[in-house]
Design goal:
This protein has 27 helices and 27 strands. It is an alpha/beta fold. The strands form seven sheets. Strands 5-4-17-16-15-6-7 form a seven-stranded mixed beta sheet, with helices on both faces. Helix 9 (about 225-235) packs antiparallel against helix 12 (about 265-270). The longest helix has 19 residues, at about 85-105. The chain starts with a strand and ends with a strand. The protein binds ligand MGD (2 copies), iron/sulfur cluster (SF4) and molybdenum atom (MO). One ligand MGD binds near residues 140, 301, 697 and 701.
Length: about 725
């Protein structure tokens, strides 16, 4: 037996990739501990996180996928044959070739989820194959903020909270106490302890809200009204940054006219927040610069009102002089390393299939047309957003195409690092769609309800088994990562291996010159002048941030400005107007309550130690939070005759789920359910599929395309009419 060696490596149980030291014997990890020399620099932060300790168990958990599996018998019957990688790849490639000949390349789709792994190998494969059909979660995570900020400032922003410099923080629909739990959350705690104003906009009194100077328990989905109300006061009281507005903002007069009706009383009537708190929030935010305005997932998930909310937040930052200022925000840079757009190879390939994008007639921004318009502007400063995320298929249309074959059939789906039966909207639809396919391939670490329905399940290398190089999808000049601690256990391989091998089998060999994942990552770094080994010493590439870049002079001695139509911050957005959107934030009122569904549902508030549907298998993690919870205020719950700990059935027009009731100080008439719940200990065959139908929040949601927001296609995970009853 070898003696134990210590290896510097990184956790990958969330996107932070904290530094770890692994003790390895015979390619087996026996222990891990935080590495105080690398991010997040000290055990104090990592000691709050419960996940990393579970790594040795996760590496060899009985529910892990260790060999390529091929379905035997009926789909969902739980019978598998173990095959070789070669055989699986040959068979999948042959099937894809046949389907492509019969129906065209667009008949093959992929599905990705949150930030679990690099997506570019999948995008590169799909671009070369010739299909636009990747289903992502971008329409409700990430895209709205990036698109609206780029429309407004010419590029996207990094928000900053520095307890020493930042003088006010406004946190909007975000709860880093549960969703971050790392260095950022420590900074927030430190900031709050300093006594500087912290404002939290959230229907629930979260752990973050409990630290706040001012908590605004907003009615779900009414956020753009509050944003316009704050702008109204800031303008009326003259609290805006006069010089920045005069020199660097376009359309202030139109904005001032537009917000005139959004008085505190009017906004209070819609948001449920008292007028005096609206006024106080506006004064605290505008009066204490530099101020950090940080928004979370909630407002990306409120359907139509998502875009006007982001417009409102972008305007708030600008008129208070909080753009590209230390302690508030900075406009990010294009990477020095190879950017995502080039790794995807979108610019070389999409011409052949852009006409096949589902829903392109309706979607203004989440389309090739919208992407190109935006890029005309960003290119003025040499910047290019990745393309596949901003053109990905609307899930409702893609799943319908699998079931109905319209407007063309989608017959094959390859799923990487996501569990769509738990995390895509409308589980019944997803289920029907997966059952309609001729080929379902799932790349996974663990058995999940999605793998249970697959034709092939491929064993993927996970935490500590593969090198890491992450880079905010190429929208900033920051990369982090590090070395694997061990070679993959059993027959597991990195996702990259699958896409490259499949690509080579389908005539793409020229586009996959790097035999291994590590070589591909080293190649990405090449333009920086760093070798892979040099990069791994710190695991961080992060040149110092520059501020006030719009003031810097170009070759003709003119200020650089912002990469927008006016060269200024577009408070009044001309490009959006040209594309057919509303140039100023135009919110929609929430429909009057339906008497059959009198309560408002929010789904998906994050909880430790889970990530979406992940980590319910390791017993030590499950013990920390064993059951799916629904939260309500004690007053609302008591009015329904409910006590804490009761099991309740929560029901919407789309479906229902069972949750255990927990009392939380929060807005009345609102119910909040956790998402991602299934039960790996239950039967892994049809019809149970690991308890898929019991407590899955997405049984209660839908992304019905005709109702989706017209610019991005955003649907509602929050603000859904619902009802409840006690389960006896
Ligand atoms: N533990 C854990 N951490 C995670 C994840 C995870 O699954 N688990 N997921 C990761 C991912 S993919 C993401 S995108 C991030 C998300 O991170 P966050 O944005 O922090 O996500 P949430 O915890 O859902 O926080 C959203 C907050 O908005 C509130 N809210 C709900 N509806 C509304 C509304 O209409 N208006 C307003 N203003 N607030 C509302 C909710 O009560 C909740 O507290 O977290 C990441 N971190
Ligand atoms: N109702 C509701 N639905 C939501 C949300 C919500 O707030 N409410 N939030 C949405 C958001 S913001 C997000 S980001 C998504 C998250 O949704 P998903 O991305 O689907 O997240 P998980 O459920 O964690 O599934 C990730 C799967 O990938 C596997 N995995 C991990 N690492 C790797 C890897 O390197 N390679 C491969 N091949 N597999 C790997 C894990 O084992 C796990 O099964 O959910 C979305 N869905
Ligand atoms: S799970 Fe915890 S230790 Fe691992 S990367 Fe995330 S915050 Fe860091
Ligand atoms: Mo997300």
């Amino acid at each position: 037996m070898d003696t134990a060696k210590k290896v510097k490596t990184n956790c990958r149980l969330c996107a932070y990739q904290c530094g770890l030291i692994a003790q390895v014997v015979n390619n087996t990890v026996i222990r891990v501990e935080p590495d105080p020399d690398r991010f997040p620099y000290g055990k104090r932060v990592q000691n709050r996180c419960q996940r990393w300790r579970a790594i040795p168990g996760i590496l060899d958990h009985p529910k892990r996928i260790n060999y390529p599996l091929k379905r035997q018998g009926q789909r969902g019957s739980g019978q598998w044959e173990t095959v070789t990688w070669e055989a699986a790849l040959d068979e999948i490639a042959a099937k894809l070739r046949t389907l492509k000949e019969k129906y065209g390349p667009e008949t093959v789709a992929t599905c990705i989820g949150g930030p679990h792994t690099n997506h570019w190998p999948l995008h590169r494969f799909m671009n070369l194959f010739g299909s636009p059909n990747n289903i992502g979660i971008n329409q409700i995570c990430w895209n709205a903020a990036i698109l609206v900020n780029t429309l407004t400032y010419g590029w996207t922003l990094g928000n900053e909270l520095d307890p020493d410099i930042t003088n006010c923080a406004l946190f909007w629909g975000v709860n880093p106490a549960q969703s971050d739990n790392s260095l950022f959350w420590q900074n927030i705690v430190e900031f709050a302890q300093s006594g500087k104003p912290l404002i939290v906009v959230d229907p629930r009194q979260t752990q973050t809200a409990r630290l706040a100077t001012l908590w605004l328990p907003i009615e779900p989905g009414t956020d753009p009204f509050l944003a316009l109300g704050l702008i109204h006061i800031i303008i009326e009281d003259g609290l805006y940054d006069h010089s920045f507005v005069e020199q660097w903002c376009h359309g202030f007069a139109e904005l001032a006219r537009h917000v005139a009706p959004y008085t505190p009383e009017y906004v209070a009537g819609i948001t449920g927040i008292p007028p005096k708190d609206i006024v106080r929030a506006a004064r605290l935010y505008a009066g204490n610069g530099p101020a950090c305005l940080y928004s979370g997932r909630a407002i990306d998930q409120i359907g139509y009102n998502t875009v006007p909310t982001h417009q409102g937040l972008a305007i708030l930052r600008a008129i208070t002089g909080n753009v590209d200022v230390p302690g508030a925000s900075h406009l990010t840079e294009m990477p020095d390393f190879i950017p995502e757009i080039d790794l995807e190879m979108s610019e070389q390939t999409v011409a052949s299939f852009r006409g096949k994008q589902l829903g392109r007639e309706r979607l203004v921004l989440q389309s090739y047309r919208g992407y190109e318009k935006l890029r005309e502007h960003t290119l003025k400063q040499g910047k290019r957003l990745p393309m596949r995320y901003f053109t990905s298929a609307h899930p409702d249309l893609a799943f319908q195409a699998m079931i109905e074959g319209k407007p063309y059939p989608i017959k094959a789906l390859m799923v990487m690092a996501t569990n769509p039966l738990l995390t895509q909207p409308n589980t019944k639809l997803v289920y029907q769609a997966l059952k309609s396919l001729e080929l379902l391939v799932v790349l996974e670490l663990f058995e999940t309800p999605t793998t249970m329905l697959a034709d092939y399940v491929l064993p993927i290398a996970g935490v500590l088994e593969k090198p890491l190089f992450e880079y905010d999808r190429g929208t900033a000049n920051v990369a982090y990562g590090g070395e694997a601690a061990v070679e993959p256990y059993y027959q597991r391989r990195p996702d990259y291996y699958f896409w490259r091998e499949l690509g080579i089998r389908l005539g793409q060999e020229d586009s996959w010159p790097w035999p291994t994942y590590r070589e591909a990552l080293a190649q990405c770094l090449k333009p920086t002048g760093l070798t892979w080994e040099e990069f791994c010493q710190t695991g961080l590439y992060c040149p110092p941030v520059e501020y006030y870049k719009y003031q810097s002079l170009d070759e003709q001695n003119r200020p650089l400005g912002f990469a927008t139509a006016s060269g200024k911050v577009e408070l009044y957005n001309r490009l959006l107007e040209e594309l057919g959107g509303s140039p100023l934030p135009q919110p929609k009122k929430i429909a009057a309550p339906d008497p059959r569904f009198p309560l408002q549902l929010i789904t998906g508030a994050r909880v430790q130690p889970y990530f979406a549907s992940s980590y319910r298998q390791p017993a030590d993690l499950r013990a920390l939070h064993p059951e799916p919870l629904a939260e309500m205020s004690p007053a609302t719950a008591t009015a329904y005759g409910l006590a804490e700990g009761d099991w309740i059935l929560v029901e919407t027009r789309h479906g229902n789920g069972r949750f255990k009731l927990k009392f939380t100080p929060m807005r009345e008439q609102v119910v909040s359910i956790e998402y991602g719940w299934w039960f790996p200990e239950l039967d892994n065959r049809e019809p149970e599929l690991g308890g898929l139908w019991l407590s899955n929040a997405n049984n209660l949601t839908s992304a019905n395309f005709p109702d989706a927001e017209p610019l991005i296609g955003t649907w509602n995970y929050n603000g859904i009419p619902c009802r409840i009853e006690k389960i006896t």
